[in-house]
Amino acid sequence: MRNLTFAQAIQEATMQEMERDSNVFIYGIGLPTHPKIFGTTEGLEERFGAKRCFDSPISEDSMTGFGIGAALSGLRPIQVHIRVDFLILAMNQLVNMASSYSYGSGGKLSVPLVVRAIIGRGFGQGYQHSKSLLSTFAHIPGLKVIAPSTPYDAKGLLISAIRDNNPVLVLEHRWLYWAESHVPEEPYTVPIGKGNMLREGKDITVVATSWMNIEALKAAEILARAGVSVEIIDPRTLSPLDDGLITESVKKTGHCIVADYDWLHCGFSAEVSARVGEQCFGYLQSPVERIGFASTPCPTTRFLENKFYPNAIHIIRAVEAKLKLKPTDLSGEEFYSHENRFKGPF
Amino acid sequence: MTHPFPLKEIDRIVSFSLYQKMYKIRHAETMIVKHYPENEMKVPMHMSMGQEAIAAGVCQALGNDNQVFASYRSHATYIAKTDETDMFFAEMYGRAGGTGKGKAGSMHLSCPEKGHLGSTGIVASAIPIAMGTAFANQYKDNGLVSCVFFGDGALEEGNFWETLNNSCVMKLPILFVCEDNEYAVHTHKSIRHGFSSITSVLAEFDCGVFQAHTTDVERIYQITGEAMDWIRTEEKPAFIHHSCYRYLEHVGISEDFELGYRSKKIFQEWLDKDPLKLQRTRLVSDLNYSEREIEKLEHQIHNEVLASIQKAKQASFPDVEELGKDVYR
């Protein structure tokens, strides 16, 4: 079994798709230069040349339109943003143009565009370099939004995204890049629109997005020692959302916590809660609980940053409250931080 | 101003074709004005009337294969590029046979099979998409040029400057066509632009800069040809600045002189050099077309437009399932 990091999995998916299809190209601000977008674009320029792997001016909106136009012409562009916060400058092209091209042309035109953006917490990145905005993009019909959390999914979902005929946003949490898991060498796809049961359990369902899956795994591991069996559902695709895996799990466990890597208000967690409420009403033994960012811009100082982002402890305490358990002693536990990275395996 | 290439002689058949394009646009819009009060075309109309020479001259020079993008003032470019009015009117009437099955409307016309890749209701937003198409042309080395139409308002948008900049950096085969009618809705460019001459500003960019301050469709056709030659020979983008006048209100089918933001006297000056009038006179006086030949053409176009309208009125609306179709491909 060969292991790759999340970053290597993305790099391998890109390399293999560019080998397979000469219409695939990749570009973005600073893309070919050091440090190769966390290593995810390593070797691409050397292998495919500047024609298919290139830098761009700091013109996020226009360069997204550039991708749309190239996609309309049959190419398969991959645009990369080193921070999702910068992608906000491209909302016009994404929301007004890319999302409606197929619809407004009666299906004659399509935009097979992949937009990768790096999300989440780093090292005191503050409120303009660390958002996730999962829900913001997932709100828009015509866009697809994926957020892989394992290296296996990162490769398979990115290959699916490149082959998809629609605009697909790939939101990658920066702390995931070092995580390792088994990744097959040959190209493979993970279907967009299908969730993954990351851990099977019977007592409670945790629906987690992006990095929160890592926190949920940590929480599940600690809770298992107290005899609690946590089931973790990673939707992987936020839009279009296939909620079947989620509702089946909640019908089985009777409890649901949504641990979203985003703000709660009008967020993906609210969407999941609503669907669980609608579809699992008679099965629920407790109200759906939501965990997410504080309703503030992200503070920079570590002390407050720790209060802004949810983590495994929030999940553990929420599970205990739901199942009416005594709080576990966490004093000997080590949790993830910028310095204490999660490295896998899953 | 760069004019390195001599203006080409125009074949009299092309002269006729230029008039044909303009007449079809004018007549289609005249019929919109006539039928709009029936309230069956339930869509905002941004009329091209008065600006036809630009679409006709540019699209004649582009031919079939080079791609075009347009703004929400889309009718002239659409008809000039596609030469068709059936899908056009079906879209105006919101019918299933429209360019976007009725889901697009006047502001979002497209016809990929004729190289028309979209019109946008957001100022300047098709410009970067045209750049992407130009990049694809360069990538595939297919020799095609991508052309984008926009108004003077787009010169205030980041999308214009960002796209111009990168097109120059990447030396893309893109033709920027600015239709300067001086007004963004009711606001004159003098209180929107921090420059007096866009062509002077653009002279420092690494692209060809051309002016077509005329309502003479042949002159516009020739200058576009020059710009296309420049793009292909120099392997750089080109920009053409056109001066024009919108006869009707910003959106709608009426005149708007009572609003007082522009005078009817100036309108009259433009009307005296109306592009259709100029070209019709040339066909008869200089090119030996008979009045009868031109009337025959006009009659044919009238019948064609009328048939398109009748077909559209009788056609079905999209099925209710269409609401959810084409969101994804």
Top keywords for this entry?
heterodimer; A: 346 residues; alpha/beta; Rossmann fold; 2 domains; 7-stranded mixed beta sheet; 5-stranded mixed beta sheet; 14 helices; 14 strands; 18% strand; globular; B: 329 residues; 6-stranded parallel beta sheet; two-stranded antiparallel ribbon; 11 helices; 8 strands; 44% helix; 12% strand
Short account of what is shown:
With 346 residues, chain A is α/β, with parallel strands linked by helices. Chain A has 14 helices and 14 strands.
Describe this structure in words.
The complex is a heterodimer of chains A (346) and B (329). Chain A has 346 residues and is α/β, with parallel strands linked by helices. Helix content of chain A is 36%, strand content 18%. In chain A, the strands form three sheets. Chain A has a seven-stranded mixed beta sheet, with helices on both faces. In chain A, strands 9-11-10-13-14 form a five-stranded mixed beta sheet, sandwiched between helices. The longest helix of chain A is centred in the N-terminal third of the chain and has 15 residues, at 6-20. Chain A starts with a strand and ends in a 23-residue tail after the last helix. The mean pLDDT of chain A is 97. The radius of gyration of chain B is 19 Å and the shape is globular. Chain B has a single domain (12-311), classed as Rossmann fold (3-Layer(aba) Sandwich), CATH 3.40.50. In chain B, helix 1 crosses helix 2 and helix 2 (52-62) packs across helix 8. Helices cover 44% and strands 12% of the residues of chain B. Chain B has helices at 12-35, 52-62, 75-82, 86-92, 127-140, 158-170, 198-202, 217-234, 264-272, 275-285, 291-314, and strands at residues 67-71, 116-120, 146-151, 174-180, 183-184, 187-188, 208-212, 238-243. The mean pLDDT of chain B is 96.
